[in-house]
Please model this.
Amino acid sequence: MKRAYRAGSGATPPHPTPPRRNWIAVACQEHALRGCAQPEHGFMQVCHGKQAPLQRLNAGDRVVYYAPTRTRGGQDKLQAFVSAGLVLPGPAYSFDMGGGFVPYRRDVAYVPVQPAPIAPLLDALDFVEDRQHWGYRFRFGLLEVGDADMRRILRAMQAPLERLHFQQPAA
Model:
C-alpha cells in the first residue's frame, strides 16, 4: 500500500507540477479565431501545423494569439492580440483539414476577450527589447513570455484573469 507523502516521512514525493508558462502564438486573425469558435473545446495550431513547437506547451499553460494581419498573407494589418486561453491536457495530435493538409493541434479552453492592439503596450512589455524591431520576436510563431507581460496583455484584452489562473490584485 502506498503511503501519503509527508516531508521527512520516507514516502515517495508526488511528481512536481511543472510551473505554468505563458505563450504568444502568431497567426492571422481569421485562423486564430477558428481555434476559439467553440471556446471550451478550442484548439491551437502554430507554425503552419508543425508538431514540435506544440510539444513545448504543458497543460495549464496560458496562451494568447497575436494576429499581425486579418487574413493569411494579407496586406490588411491588424497587429493585435485576438484570443486567450489555457492549454488543456493531452498531447499534440494531427487533424485532417482536407486537401492533404494535416496539421498538429493542441486543445485549448478559450476565455472571452476583446482584441487589443499591441502598439499601446510596446513600451510596457518586457519582451520588447528594441522598439524599432519589436515584431522580430514573433517570427518563429511561438514565443514564451513572463507572467508580467502576460498579465499586461490579458488586462488589455479585458480577459477574466481568474479563469487564466492569475489572482486579482488586492484593492
